[in-house]
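Review box. Two proteins, two foldings.
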Amino acid sequence: MLTPDSFLTYTQWGGIATLAFAGLTALAFVFKWGFRFRLVGATGFVGVLTGGLLSLSFVPFSQTVIPNSTKYSLVYDTGGASVVIAVAPTITQPQLEATLEQAAINLFSPGRLGLGNTQQLSLRARTVIHPEEGVSVPLYLGEARRSLATREDKNLEVSVFEQNMALLPQPT
């Protein structure tokens, strides 16, 4: 798996390639080679690639995996302070807590906007139950709150709505 460290290594090699192309371009201008202007374009292209690799070395690609968490899908996220995820209706309370914690960590972004005086990300988990034929009811099962400012938030709050968990279908 590619990590920011590997992109930093690729950036170093890209920088060397850019300098090599720049040197070759300078030689082409000194000796008035016919393809010297093509080398200007190639040097610029390699320089842009190197800049892209450098920017990828700043972004963390690793996803946190919390034991006992389940799969979730993103339902609502506009890059603001409110996110909704969907989980399976067969989820248990320990799985829900682990899934909320994992989603709160993985969905952190320093570019999220805190509107008004909200400086916390509110992440809610929901599922859809079918109490009778032809009826679908969305049901919020829990919520996680974390800071919008710091990646390593020690004050992550996970709360489970136990009255809604009791409405989930029981496994047979």
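Next protein.
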Amino acid sequence: MLCQICGKNPATVHFTEIHDNKMSEIHVCERCAEEKGLQTVPAKQTFDIAELIAGMVDGMTATEEERVGHVQCPRCGLLYSAFKETGRLGCAECYTAFQFQLRPLLRRIHGDTRHKGKVPSRDGEGASRSRHVQRLYDELHRAVEREEFERAAEIRDEIKRVETGTTVGRTTAEPSP
């Protein structure tokens, strides 16, 4: 994308303005941004997600720190206290090793511990059905743990209906005795 002012240089500075519920964008090169007096963020003020996460983890009390500071990832050996200082995990296994400490942090950052992004329109129904079935399996597991077997049977039947694509009102014909 070229600068919208000079039309020569690549646009590297992007501004978005919302005024009276109307959004306008301007894309300019650094030289034109400086000439027009548009403020840019200095390089030393860049956003660092690791620093943000480390800062959010600092909200733990001393007793919580004593309890979780010695938790260690079995794969890479990273201590939770080291994650707390840097805001960076060592490997994919760290998510499992630190899951109890990360859940509240993720909930605070994202509002939930499960990603709920947009679904591509070409497979939206299939993906939606898969998520629904996964939620039902999770609910089934919890019902069995609580020994709520009647509820678990209802959930099992609902899973079958969703997986086969039948509606709730329709029942399958059973063979006569």
